[in-house]
Structures are given as C-alpha cells and as structure tokens.
Amino acid sequence: MWRRVPCLRPQQFAVQRAWKSTRRSTRPPKSSLFESTPAPFLPRPPTPVFHLSEPRIPTHVRIGTCLVAFAAGFSIYFFLDDPEIVGPPPKPPVLSPNQFAVTKLNSAEASGPSTKLVKIASPPHLLPLNNSSDASIWSVFIKDDDIQVERAYTPLHGVDSNGDMLFWIKKYPKGEVGRWIHSKNPGDKIEIRGPIKTWPWKDGVWDEVVMISGGTGITPFAQLFNNLILKSPSATNTRFTLIHSSRVPGELPPAVILEPMVAFASGNPDKFKLHVFVDEVDASKPPVSIENINMGRIQEAGLKRCLKGPEEPSKAWWRKSPVQRPQQSNKPRILFLVCGPEPMIDAIAGPYGRNFSQGPVGGILGKMGYTSDEVYKL
Ligand SMILES: Cc1cc2nc3c(=O)[nH]c(=O)nc-3n(C[C@H](O)[C@H](O)[C@H](O)COP(=O)(O)OP(=O)(O)OC[C@H]3O[C@@H](n4cnc5c(N)ncnc54)[C@H](O)[C@@H]3O)c2cc1C
Ligand SMILES: NC(=O)c1ccc[n+]([C@@H]2O[C@H](COP(=O)([O-])OP(=O)(O)OC[C@H]3O[C@@H](n4cnc5c(N)ncnc54)[C@H](OP(=O)(O)O)[C@@H]3O)[C@@H](O)[C@H]2O)c1
Known about the structure:
Elements: H1 10-26, H2 30-34, H3 59-79, H4 83-86, E1 101-110, E2 115-121, H5 128-131, E3 137-144, E4 149-153, E5 164-170, H6 177-182, E6 189-199, E7 208-214, H7 219-229, E8 239-246, H8 255-267, E9 272-278, E10 293-295, H9 300-306, E11 334-339, H10 342-349, H11 363-367, E12 375-377
Parallel strand pairs: 7-8, 7-11, 8-9, 9-10, 11-12
Antiparallel strand pairs: 1-2, 1-6, 2-5, 3-4, 3-6
Flavin-adenine dinucleotide binds at residues 139, 151-154, 167-170, 172, 174-178, 198, 216, 219, 341.
C-alpha cells in the first residue's frame, strides 16, 4: 500500500505519515498477529514525563487529531487508485498532430539538382493509417531543430510496410527547413508531428478529379495515386487526370513517383490520364521514359487539350451563363485540385485568400467558368 508514497505531494505525504503513525499506535505489531514464534522482546518505550512547565494536551484534542489524520489517510488510500486524480501512467512518445515525436532519418538520396528522396522512420502505431479505407491526403510537419521552425511535407505512400515514410523534398538557396533536411544523414534524429489532413477524399462525389501540379506540388497527388488509384482502382468510379509541370526534364519527379503513374496510365486509360509539361528542353534527361512531353508552361490552351470534350467550356453550353444553367444536369461532376508554386496557383486558379483560405476562383479555371465548389487549392 505504501509504495504509492513517491506519487504524493508533500502535504499528502505528511498526512499519510500521520495516518501511519496513528495505525501503529492503535494496532498490535504485525509480527505478534501472524507469526507462530513469539515476538522478540522489544524494549518498552520510556513513559513520557510531563513537566509542570509544559502544557498537557487534553485527551479530546488528541482524539480529534487522530480522527482527522485517520480520515485523511483513509481518503488517500482509496482515492489514489483513481486515475482521474493521479493521472494515467506516462506513455511513450507517439506521433500526434499536437506534439513532436522523435524519430530518425533512414536514408537520403539525391533525385535531381535540388531535390532528395528522404526516408524517415515513423512511430509504428501510425501503420494502421495506410490500412484504413480513408484515402484523404495528409502530411506531417518536420521540425528544423536548430531554429525550431516547422514545415509540412507529404509522404508519397503514406507509411510503408516497414513503418517508413518516403518524401520528395526540395531545398531552396535561402530556404530554412528544406536545406536543414538535405544536410541530415542516415541515423540522424528528426522530429515530426502529424498526420495533418490536407484534403478530404470523398467517394461517389466526383465523376472526374483533375490534379494540376508544379514541381514538388506533385507530392499530395502521388500520395492519392499510390493510396487510392493504384492500390484499389475498382474502389471508386471517379476518373483521374494528372497534369504536371517542371522546369526541365531533369527536374521532373523521380522514377519512384512517375514510373508507376506512366505504367498505370498506359494500362488503364479510362481510369487515369497523365500529362507532363516542361518549360524547356535542356541537356538533362527525364527520370523515366515518357511518350509525349508537352512543351511550355501549363496554360489555357494546354489545359483544354488535356481535358476531355464534355468538360471543355466551349462544348458545355451551361458554363457560358450560370443563370441558364439547369439545376439537374447530366454534366460530369468535376473537381480541380491545384498544387505548386504560388505564381502557378495564381495563374491557374487565382490567388489564395487571407490566411491561406481558398479565395475566389480566378486564373485560367475562373476564366473557363469553374466555380469554388469545383476548384481546390492545396
Ligand atoms: C501541406 C503541405 C505539404 C507539403 N509537402 C511538401 C513535400 O512533400 N515536399 C516539398 O519539398 N515541399 C512540400 N511542401 C512545401 C514545404 O512545406 C516548404 O514550404 C518548402 O520546403 C520550403 O520551406 P523552406 O523552409 O525550405 O523554405 P522557406 O524558409 O519557407 O523559404 C525561404 C525562401 O525560399 C525561397 N522559396 C520557397 N519556396 C519557393 C518556391 N516555390 N520557389 C522559389 N523559391 C522558393 C524563397 O526565396 C523564400 O523566401 C508542402 C507544403 C504544404 C503546405
Ligand atoms: N500544399 C501542398 O500540399 C504542397 C505540397 C508540396 C509542394 N507544395 C508547394 O509547391 C511548390 C513547388 O515548388 P517548386 O520549387 O518545386 O516548383 P518550380 O520547380 O519552381 O516550378 C514548377 C513548375 O511550375 C511552373 N510555374 C511557375 N509559375 C507559373 C505560372 N505562373 N504559370 C504556369 N506555371 C508556372 C514552373 O514554370 P517556370 O519555371 O516557368 O516558373 C515550373 O514548370 C512549393 O511552393 C511548395 O511549397 C505544396
């Protein structure tokens, strides 16, 4: 019973000692109750002698004190087991959106002039996330320990069967966290928190989802591709199109991202279409062989070319005048997801609103007549 003593606050400890001493004084010693051999002779404590100068404590005060001490000890004994009072035992650090968990970098491999594929071990209890049917896009925050700054990064496959998360991470000449992650080596400590849902997947809501990305902006779409489109293509009737742009062929996403996309698109053209753009061709080579690489940025003409007929505004008469648009039409329910550098988001879907709220739809998609329930800026 008394092993709980270390948990006590000093005041409680004092009360418990009082209770202990009361118990000792009112019960015979344990040995005499349970041992068959006679208790060893204990010298009788000297009888207290009260001098006339010392005030004698009246009996009723002594009894009162004993009762109070008894009641206090009794309550401590019974209520210490209550976890609401003592609190649950401390848990090992776990991955949570609210606090950082310490884990480590498993590997880092260059994947272009300023990008790396970085593998980070994840606390094992995150594993069920991949087994769940929720294909929502999520990311984790990685903390730059040197200056205590965090940035979001998107694991390409969620958590793999080894409990690792693979990221494609770019560093910028004056960027803080990207450069810090690039400086890390296998075995180095990394602090992460998450998962943070960045876009909720809902089955049965859209006939067509069009993903438009620039540079590392492809990472959330790679996650959706790996966790939903590739993993269980028959789980949804939604068709997907990915339109991606990078500066030059050598800056295109690495093979681990593009290869399964290229293969799946050629085998399942009704389910998934892939269109790749580069601003210009230089001496660099693309990481995988791609049949048709479009030249130039993603602009209105290029975007229209990538979309199928019924979604093209020229063919969809109701887009010309929202007032005449029928309430119940057979038009495909379409959603555009846009992710990339801010100038690209501005040009394609209009700028974010205040505090990174969605803001109104502008840019090319706004001009094409798409509305805020058809466009989402990641
Ligand atoms: C939900 C979410 C998920 C993300 N997932 C990923 C991911 O998987 N992989 C990934 O690499 N990034 C990802 N990012 C971006 C990432 O969070 C950081 O914003 C990025 O790494 C830059 O951070 P930094 O600290 O290195 O640079 P910062 O310190 O934020 O930037 C400093 C300077 O770098 C330069 N800079 C920053 N961004 C750009 C740019 N786009 N173009 C040119 N210059 C720039 C600017 O000059 C800026 O002043 C994600 C962002 C979000 C919101
Ligand atoms: N929210 C998320 O979930 C998330 C996830 C990952 C990444 N991100 C963001 O994505 C961005 C990726 O940046 P990056 O450095 O990898 O990209 P980048 O290499 O600088 O650019 C990628 C492509 O975007 C094009 N682009 C830029 N401005 C454009 C415009 N106005 N119109 C059309 N195309 C334009 C670029 O063309 P030019 O070379 O001609 O400019 C290039 O082809 C970062 O800002 C990152 O924060 C966000």
